[in-house]
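Complex record, two chains
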Amino acid sequence: MIRPEFVVLQSQASSAEEVIRELSELFLRHQIVKESYPEAVLNREREYPTALPGKGFFVAIPHTDSSHVLESGIAVATLQTPVRFGLMSDPDKLVDVSLVFLLAVADPREHLALLKRLMEILSDTERLQKVLGASSADEVLDVMQTSIA
Amino acid sequence: MRTLNILTVCGSGTISSTMVAQKLKEALAADGISITTTEVKPTQVLGHVEQGNYDFVVNTTPVSGNIPIPVINGVGFLTGLEEEEFLEEVRQVISRILNNEAN
């Protein structure tokens, strides 16, 4: 579900599009999403952006319909410099996002447990801070996996 | 008490709305309130509300149009930052709905 090869630390991406493409590329390389996935995520992000407020920083959870996904996965990027995403609750408002979780969900019903745990992480400031400050992919996995089994 | 019927809304009609629906089910079960949920995209809200028997809407993305039932913003619940405030609002809406029915 989440693998070391799906983690990018200190990405140099300078826009939401760049970081989404960078992480999508990892999914494509491991064949867990279809070729149509990156554009589908970008289109969705333009219409319904996915930034959420954390405590002291913003997180984004770009994703798209299951029809573009073969196998579920989560990719994580921490950013060297925050990039701008629209707020989920207020799409016209752009915020600086420091941490991106790109989601590939094959079937949301089947993956309720995963989504629930992801939500636990999103609401756990301490854990988010640890992911944000991680210096290795394994460190990120440790934090995520204490929660995402 | 009857089961309440709730429409949850997000951009994809799946991910965030499913997360909110599941979390709400568990939170309200602790209060002894049972709910059924349907997850939809913003453009499907009005049609569902007109045709279905929904008690209220919980949304993580803005919903436009004149929705004739209560609409509650669920982002603070999704992130957990305003969980109690959200649940308080939900409880108030539910008790208003049930009180109206009793009268």
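Note: The mean pLDDT of chain B is 94.
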